[in-house]
Amino acid sequence: MVGSTVYGFEDQISQIVAQLITLGYEVLNSHYGSVKVNPKLSNLDNCLNAVEECDLFLGIIRPLYGTGNIGDKNITFEEIKKAIELKKPYWFLVHRDVVFARNLFKKMKLKSGDEIIINDNRFFDKRSIDVYEYVIQNHVPVTLRNGNWAQEFYRLDEMMIYIIAQFSDKEFINQVMNQTNSDNG
Asked: I need a labelling partner for 103 at 20 to 30 A (CA). Which of 2, 40, 172, 177 fits?
């Protein structure tokens, strides 16, 4: 499954899905149209069901939080949390602007010591930093972190290098899946 914000990135998602299909995978992705939709469920519930159905999860963290917000929940973030909770084998890509902004905001404070608030989030949504910090397990001491790799990218070709490196070797993928299955009982 490819979990990502969609709007503004449709062309990239289409190319990523096409690459994964070329590598022999059946891809679940809402933009691609391959997520089973139960008309009696919310978009969030349909996407979370897709996470439960998938064998592997590729999450993409972008500077925009996405439009799939239901109350305080964001569909992409909930997909990511569900994949990790279910101990699905997962891989993450993070846009360099998220990493840059995280580092910048850590160093910037108002004279009062208060956090800087961004009201217009059409260009960058600070909540994307929350997603990134969740993925890299920022709440866990560095020495205890496992599975917290998030590959930084700026361009589509950088994303493709990572995707091909991770998913082209089926033997590696089978080893990861077998290890995950044995770790889960």
From this structure: 2
Q: CA–CA separation, 61 vs 42, rounded Å?
A: 22
- In 9-90, which ranges are continuous DSSP H helix? 10-22, 43-53, 75-85
Cβ-proximal residues to 81 (8 Å cutoff; 6+ apart), any chain: 134
Beta-carbon count within 10 A of 137 CB? 15
Pairing of β 2-4 and β 57-61: parallel
pTM of the model: 0.89
Residue of 53, 52, 50 whose CA lies nearest to 31: 50
- Residue 31: give the domain boundaries: 2-171
Residue 184 domain-assigned (yes or no): no
| CB of 91 closer than 8 Å to CB of 59 | yes
* Structural domains of the chain, count: 1
pLDDT tens digits for 132-166?
999 999 988 888 988 899 999 999 999 999 999 99
Residue 17 backbone dihedrals phi, psi, to 5 degrees? -60, -45
Which residues, 6+ apart, have CB-to-CB distance to 162 below 8 Å?
91, 93, 151, 153
Give the length of the chain: 185
The distance from CA 172 to its chain's CA centroid, rounded to whole angstroms, is 21
Q: What is the spatial distance between Cα 48 and Cα 65, in angstroms, rounded to a whole number? A: 17
Position 180 in a domain: no
Residue 182 within any structural domain of the chain: no
